Amino acid sequence: MSTIQEVIAQKGQSVLTIDRSATVLQAAELMNQHRVGAVVVMDEQRLAGIFTERDMLVRVVGQQLSPKLTLVEQVMSERVVCCRLETSVEEARVVMRNRRIRHLPVVDQEGQLQGLVSIGDLNAWHLDAQEKTIYFLNEYLFGRA
Hints:
Blueprint lengths: L3 H8 L5 E3 L4 H11 L3 E6 L2 E7 H9 L10 H4 L7 E2 L4 H11 L3 E5 L5 E6 H23 L4
Parallel strand pairs: 1-2, 4-5
Antiparallel strand pairs: 2-3, 5-6
């Protein structure tokens, strides 16, 4: 059974973070620059929340707030669902589906940020595993394995 640690090892531990006192405009510019749908909000070295495209649409655009004047801490999601490195990929997919979220911060036992996985990362991992299975079954069926 594959774990989130394997996904993080393949994709890398790099996580875009932003301080809670940044403006929504700064967060949006960072997300656009790196072509990502979320940034983890930090309060010094502690995970304070997550700011996503959905937060932007619902809490900023939907409320007609100014991105230049609104702080990330005012509109971020504070109740963040996280997983651990030892979490199975399937369990993470189920959590994301059931909670209707697309980004899952990965933390260690002390709550320190270790990475971030998106539903796209997990779908790519699943697709890669399926392609390997198909390849090996094909090799077996045709006597090349």
